[in-house]
Amino acid sequence: MAEKINVLFSEEEVDARIRQMGEQISRDYAGREVHLICVLKGGSFFMCELAKRITVPVYLDFMSVSSYGSETKSSGVVKIVKDLDAPLAGKDVIVVEDIVDTGHTLSYLLEMLKGREPASLKLCTLLDKPDRREVEVPVDYTGFVIPDKFIAGYGLDYDQKYRNLPYIGTVEF
Ligand code: IMP
Ligand code: MG
Question: N- or C-end of the chain: fewer Cβ atoms within 10 A?
Fold first, then answer.
């Protein structure tokens, strides 16, 4: 194992931030129900913790997409590997992602989901790397804005490793 993980946000910092995000979403959706869509696999840890902090009724669904190309570089072409179980029409939907990097994955996904005619569609991401953006993506809720470093932990992987780290770290190669 050649690489080393350096802590960027501790478990306590991540938990505190997700708690705040849950409170914000609970206020914004007061009197409504919220449908969270997890983008597997990276968004799964974040969505579970976020859902626990939301006080309005929450429904969960999952989808899995893969971008053609190498693991560390987004090609902009996205394939749906697993689709949602339920239709979105008329629902208040929040897409929950681990990270917005180039923006290709989310821009494709949001366009596709809009076509299913939800009542509303928002994007919530744990991490945002704005320096890397190639396509504009409207982010409604952001956990942390981070510099252009490769990240692992809290659902994010390097070569499928480190997803289970309870903190967010940078990968030192
Ligand atoms: P995009 O470049 O915005 O399309 O991001 C595509 C996907 O690349 C994200 O959903 C992540 O799964 C992955 N990704 C981007 N940056 C990182 C990183 O720093 N660490 C781990 N995965 C990343
Ligand atoms: Mg992802």
Answer: N
